[in-house]
Amino acid sequence: MIAGWNRALDLAGIADPGLRSDYAAAAWWMARHYPALHVCGRLLVPPASQPHLLAAVTATLFGDGLVDDLDRPCPGARFPAWAAEVRRGLLTGRAGDPLLRAFLHTLAVRRVPHLDVHLYLAGQAGQAWVAEYVTDQDHHDYVERVAVPTIRLWLAGLGASAGTRDEPLVRSFTDAIQRLDDLADLSADLRHGKMTIPQSDRLHYGVARADLESGRDTPGVRALLAHACRKARASLAAARADHARAGPEARAIFHPFLPVVDQLLAIIERQGPALTRHGVIWHARPTPGLLAAALGVVVSRPPLLAAGAARRPR
């Protein structure tokens, strides 16, 4: 069912033993820190694209983790050094870290414009000191400055063309997945002093930040979290509408992921106030429901994606 990793490396044209070790390190990091995401990538993506996708996802999530060190004395202090290493790597093609070496090789193979990487780094740097959203505009700013550049790099790892990476579907899908991610990571964010549920929404439902931080189960907390889930559902509906209007390549690439996002959101919706006490998705092992959704997509995926048609940009 899941293609062997060595076969995936062979199909991706990665023959150098050192590079194969670097890509294995990236895949291992992903499997260790984001097992559900790792399994979805291995199940839903053609084997030839898996190493490059995992390299892009691992690098961007590693950087995201450095920015999110809000519980340290100097939040995000490690990110500038890592970003500088990335920029040096873009200039020299070399790096000391295996995760970064795999990422740089993928950028070269997929012919990713360096501007895309610089936009991602600049967006992340601007978030290092953001500890609380005041209104929903803060969410939209994050999506535009960080999440969309991140997804564009993931799409490049898949081999999507430049035109596909600019589709409206990219923005709407990113908005949906970011709202889902904020809910999935709510408990961890609260522990680290970060609040992604806007203050304006909390005031509307009469919920204090302390109510969420202490994990209280009140009617206001339930209503607030249900409202956040409805916003995620609305974003997913917008992504589905854009998917229907998108070009063939974009439809093929996003087709497997929309039902999986739907399943993930259903898991979150069932948690209610428990979301404030423990995470439910990315860092946990895949649930039977998630695996069933992923396997269902594998069976029904369109021929374009099944053949690995996400191509290298020209």
Automatic annotation (TrEMBL):
InterPro entries: Isoprenoid_synthase_dom_sf, Squ/phyt_synthse. Gene3D superfamilies: Farnesyl Diphosphate Synthase. This is Phytoene synthase.
